[in-house]
Queue: 2 jobs
Job 1
Amino acid sequence: MVDRLEGEMSLARCPDIYLVLNTPKGRGVVARSHIPARTILDVCPVLVLSLEDNEKHIKHTELFHYTYNWPHQDEKGILRMHQAICFGLGSMFNHSHHNQNVVWERDQQSKTITYRAARDIPPGEELCISYGSHLTFTDADSPEGEEEPELLLDKIQI
Ligand SMILES: C[S@@+](CC[C@H](N)C(=O)[O-])C[C@H]1O[C@@H](n2cnc3c(N)ncnc32)[C@H](O)[C@@H]1O
């Protein structure tokens, strides 16, 4: 066992998940075997974008659909909502309003997001988060014209 040095943090990825390339939502993450509630699924580093980079560039690209809202305080102490790019499986979790089984938590200090199982997940089930109520695509789960339920993300975020 190696002592952890200052400035280090542990990374963890659950071995019981895999990437499916052709779900109705594109690529998606699926449970290979039973995953108990609260299991850490992945710890993903993020890149916090400047407001300028996001407005001028990223917002106009496909990459924008992979970014997370990231509250960030500037040198003057002003808190603004930035976007962050998430490296790792965090960018592969699809959206579900009705059957989300993954919760996530930002760590501002380490600039990481930790994903956990929100409940017991059976083998074969897709692992989904909630993107909130303002989707930029047609939800493959929802019948056409169905009104999206209220935003759930704020309720499940820690
Ligand atoms: C963060 S990516 C998730 C990974 C993506 N499926 C891929 O193959 O790269 C977000 C994109 O996945 C797709 N997506 C996620 N959830 C979806 C859903 N419920 N219905 C349809 N498409 C979805 C949309 O194209 C969305 O812009």
Job 2
Amino acid sequence: MTHPLRVAVLGATGRMGAQTCAALEAADGLELVARVGRGEDVGAAVRAARADVAVDFTVPAATEANVHAVLDAGAHAVVGTTGWDDDSRRRVAEHLGRLNAARGVAEPDLGVLIAPNFGLSAVLAMTFAARAARYFESAEVVELHHPDKVDAPSGTARHTAAAIARARAEAGLGPMPDATEAGIEARGADVDGVRVHAVRLRGLVAHEEILFGNVGEQLVIRQDSFDRVSFMPGVLLAVREVGSRPGLTVGLENVLDLS
Ligand SMILES: NC(=O)C1=CN([C@@H]2O[C@H](COP(=O)(O)OP(=O)(O)OC[C@H]3O[C@@H](n4cnc5c(N)ncnc54)[C@H](O)[C@@H]3O)[C@@H](O)[C@H]2O)C=CC1
Ligand SMILES: O=C(O)C1=N[C@H](C(=O)O)C[C@H](O)C1
């Protein structure tokens, strides 16, 4: 009989952390062994709980340090928190490289899976947008969230825009048409040359629209997470998979074989 995977949750009293704890408690083959909150020593908590995997749903300012502490404690990390950039991802990849090179043959290599969004509808929307991007002159992203969200634009919108920009560059497309001369601040954030607009509205949870335009036509891809329960199948999949994916994986699309 295989033992259940031992899982710690960082940010356990937050909106996503609490939902994740509930999902883990209801899941087969997974055991919630630590609820870690703000101000606690993450490494010590993960070690004390003998966690195999730690899930991070904290805040952008804390998430990178948490992941380094989890790795030093010998556990895999699944990360949903936003705020990651090329530099922080590179530092985690280097840390993983050093640790995995030093691990014994009997120990599985450590993995970190960072997913800007665990919702299936969001992962599919991002994937479809990346596929569509090369065929359109114009593309813009609108993300819409609850007003308690601390960062903008959302991690999902950044990931989406970056993928659109990559696809456009690979297809040899130049900058998008935009004649704006005055009021550029009303055109949203510029993420790799793609405009991203952030709406904050009471009643919303997490939503994204990707707009594509050509002369005489438009394509709109939209996804809606109406409830945080929608993120849980993706979180549980990531927890189960991260141990068999050594090194750094960014995006649940890689686990779902959509990339
Ligand atoms: N990848 C995904 O599918 C999703 C990602 N998110 C992201 O997850 C993060 C958390 O979102 P929410 O749960 O809505 O926020 P929240 O504000 O409800 O929860 C954050 C929790 O982290 C705790 N915390 C802060 N610093 C900490 C530290 N150093 N160690 C441990 N705990 C700490 C806070 O006390 C709080 O309980 C955000 O970055 C959000 O954008 C949210 C929803 C889905
Ligand atoms: O803060 C949220 O709520 C969400 N954060 C993530 C993001 O910034 O993309 C994922 C989802 O949009 C919900």
